[in-house]
Amino acid sequence: MTKLEGNILKMRTEFNTPINYFLSLGADEIYLNELLGKTINLSYRHQINCIHCGRKTKTSFAQGYCYPCFQTLPETDACVLRPEMCEAHLGISRNQAWAEEHCLQDHYVYLALSSALKVGVTRHTQVPTRWIDQGAWKAIKLARTPNRNLAGQIEVFLKDHLTDKTNWRHMLMNTLAEDVSLVSEKERIGSLLPDVFQDYYEEDDEITELVYPVNEYPQKVKSFGFDKQADFEGVLTGIKGQYLLFEGGYVINIRKHGGYLVELSWE
């Protein structure tokens, strides 16, 4: 039996068919695709360490940070979740050097398909990682902007016409919106943009298709987490978004448990 222990980090992915998934546990990295069909055991050691500073914390904030880091780091600023609030282009940031690398870079406003059509924003270097993390099965670029704030403004405008949320249960059940043409929707949505945003419209109509390493999708989703269930054993049937899928419909959101000290074992 193989046993590894360490603090969980968000799963690393490589774009492939299917997508390659890697789980970090401290200094170790496990290629999860090879564990499909195997019985694995997850055991939470009742310890959380901040994924930035390593400090022990009773509660994890923003998917892995202690409270002091949550309050001060640029990675946890409000604009991470709400791009329209980014003020880096005005010279205002928790860390301007970080903002130069993350906010004052080209950003895409995109359309993605899972169970429904949604709009989102991501930095150009995060394509297609962002789409993978959300469990989209198709995506297309709608607009390209020179900073995060502008992309956020476009997204806010489009929220009157599109959702910006993914139904995670439908995503994990592989309920697909198969009757939607991304190119047609892009043209329709693009025509709605005010003149002030038209210069950012992306002419490239390439559609990215994403295939996940899943042997079997659940008919009903049963979510579990380490705060209420310290130990879990089951057959790994798939990986999608940032979720592990197990036989019987059990799923766990790995990203939500950033910093949790866990032992992973399998035969």
Keywords:
single chain; 267 residues; alpha+beta; 2 domains; 7-stranded mixed sheet; 4-stranded antiparallel sheet; 14 strands; 18% helix; 30% strand
Q: What does the model show?
A:
The protein is of the alpha+beta class and 267 residues long. It has two domains: 2-71 and 214-266, no CATH class; 74-209, no CATH class. It contains seven helices and 14 strands. The strands form three sheets. Strands 1-14-5-11-12-13-10 form a seven-stranded mixed sheet, with no helix packed on it. A four-stranded antiparallel sheet has the order 7-6-8-9. A hairpin with a 5-residue loop joins strand 2 (12-14) and strand 3. The longest helix has 11 residues, at 148-158. The model has no long low-confidence stretch (mean pLDDT 97).
Q: Give the structural class.
A: alpha+beta
The total of helices stands at 7
Low-confidence stretches: none
Number of strands: 14
Secondary structure: helix percent: 10-25%
Distance between the termini: 4 Å
Count structural domains.
Answer: 2
Residue-averaged pLDDT:
97
Give the CA-based shape: globular
What is the CA-atom radius of gyration, in angstroms?
A: 19 Å
Main sheet characteristics: 7 strands, mixed
Q: What order do the SSEs take from the amino end to the carboxyl end, as H and E?
A: EEEEEHHEEHEHHHHEEEEEE
| Strand line-up across the major sheet | 1-14-5-11-12-13-10
What proportion of the residues form beta strands (DSSP E)?
25-35%
